[in-house]
């Protein structure tokens, strides 16, 4: 299945000048964040055509209208706080049906959060709960009960439509799988999931290779996602734009637009491993063969279409000593390296483009009416380790073609801009000084880059924390990042997540003043 979101190929012309520029600057780049910023802001341009290069992003009128909307929202300086529901909010009863856990305690918690000044609640709407047993058999009763409880508490909703599983990330505690009928198909055909080079897969998310292949009881993955969204909108139409203010659309593992290159919970990966490329299931392999061979033959390199990098290490490798992530003839800087990475990241961008196009079309009638306007949100991963290296290997395996020489988030945000989606950015609580220096982390550098490209592409920002912070230092870091004078004020902030810790006296005494400051004019 050929990619339809834009053409791409690597032009070998001007390669010599690129290499000369690289040689002049290489010695200044490694571990130098200030210089890296110069490259990612456009000093160097990739010689690859952008995967979204042929797309019209927005007309100037639309861009200016969007800019004025964002600037207007920045003037008021209030950042509404949403608190994400507990990870184990749902459990199975004796008959195997999902239900809400500790309903009375939850009711009290919602009232306390409302009194503290919290604006709303984030709720993951799981595909594996609603369409659990059989295709088209949507059961929304659990969410009808939960949404009413939240609304009656005077709180708004950030809804995250979740097409992934969290079984591995929760270690079995309240985890939600993919729909049972999907798992049955996967038991017979494991290639509906992403595979690594050794053939290992996990059932956290369907491979983008089946986006257009009707393997799921006669439907493609995209059709399954679209049908689910249509059913959701039809069921909760009266809530949209009134109670439901933000709708986040799942695009990959943990709801984030990325490949499952760092699978935590199943023993294959642990921090700070670089991860592995995930393009070896037979459906994405078929896409690769078709896409890459076509382009490779144009460049006179038909062998490039046969396989992925063979020198990229394994999940827990560190960058040093891994040839693909260094600077040799067979590295990410080689003709083949750039060729492969453009394809690998491009497929991910096509996946986002296809899903966002469908949900934007579904929500269009609500967004045209100011009284029912709802914000479409897309979530991106926070791959901050090895960020201060030349190659950014952990980002490359996750599908973000972002290096010291190339801004890999610009094409991603361009697609969001085209569909009017906000970018949900992580790491707002994190500080470089609190990360292990050995692993060349820079959550602050990553955040700054995302803020910069979002401002350039006129895209709203939604913030979130990556790690739980309830101490004053962490909460005040969130606040300073939300009001960064070099970027637009974030539209809202989602705190991950509600649990017993947040209500402990010492934490509650930090959290309440934080919420009230964020909810008041600066």
UniProtKB/TrEMBL annotation:
Q: Does the keyword Hydrolase apply?
A: yes
Listed A to Z, the keywords are:
Carbohydrate metabolism, Glycosidase, Hydrolase, Polysaccharide degradation
Q: Report any Pfam family annotated for this entry.
A: Glyco_hydro_14
Concerning InterPro entries, the annotation shows: GH, Glyco_hydro_14
Name this polypeptide is given:
Beta-amylase
Q: Catalyzes what?
A: Hydrolysis of (1->4)-alpha-D-glucosidic linkages in polysaccharides so as to remove successive maltose units from the non-reducing ends of the chains
The text of the family note is: Belongs to the glycosyl hydrolase 14 family.
One GO biological-process annotation of the entry reads: polysaccharide catabolic process
Q: Name one GO molecular function term.
A: beta-amylase activity
Which sequence ranges are marked TM in the entry?
Answer: none
What Enzyme Commission number(s) appear in the record? 3.2.1.2
